[in-house]
Design a protein that fits this description.
204 residues; alpha+beta; binds coenzyme A
Amino acid sequence: MSNSFALTHGEISLRIIKARDAKTVERLVLSNRAWLKPWEATNPHGPTSFDFKSQIRGLLRQLENDEGIPFLILYKGEIVGQLNVANILHGSVSSCVIGYWIIPEVAGKGITPTAVALAMDYVFKVVGLHRVEIDIRPDNEASVRVVEKLGLRHEGLKKNYIHINNAWRDHLVFALTADEVPDGVLNRWLRREVPKIKSRDQKD
Ligand SMILES: CC(C)(COP(=O)(O)OP(=O)(O)OC[C@H]1O[C@@H](n2cnc3c(N)ncnc32)[C@H](O)[C@@H]1OP(=O)(O)O)[C@@H](O)C(=O)NCCC(=O)NCCS
């Protein structure tokens, strides 16, 4: 499949990252350290690399191997963040995880939930995956709001799951399977048909 396609809703779109985006991504990440650092994956064995060219090469290798889909998030045609579909497993699992960030200048406009909905509909309908998971630190209220808006189910807590901001951190697990959203994640959200999900604090 060509890597030059875009997924679009209104002023928000997703396109595959390219090697030549390295400078822009570097500028956005390095000029927003306080905003991104608390939620950023880090290297448990040493310093975290800010070599964006090599990061993008790694992401594009995953794309080539059908293991990931590295999107950029665009708002009004400008790059404002990244949405990464990772850990794609095919066959009897057919699942992936999604991670994301945007710059603070455009926060609060519903850009990320729209981008996540576009990506989920793409992996369900075009790639043919069955399940999408999003893992979020319990104290990341803004990110939890993103999955609440789209009605992902809260499945539980993974203890010490990902090395974030220099320590192993617990993560809440949210997920949806394709059969739960036959008309699409974006459609369901736009039509205000998202069921209220069980509160994170509510006991089973
Ligand atoms: C989490 C994040 C991706 C949300 O993106 P977004 O496009 O702003 O998402 P939304 O517009 O749906 O806003 C989500 C929540 O952010 C909060 N928010 C709104 N405006 C905000 C602002 N200007 N600054 C900070 N937070 C804001 C609100 O709680 C909002 O929920 P609400 O709409 O119920 O009020 C973004 O805050 C971000 O990139 N944060 C830093 C990196 C990060 O946390 N990545 C996710 C790791 S799991």
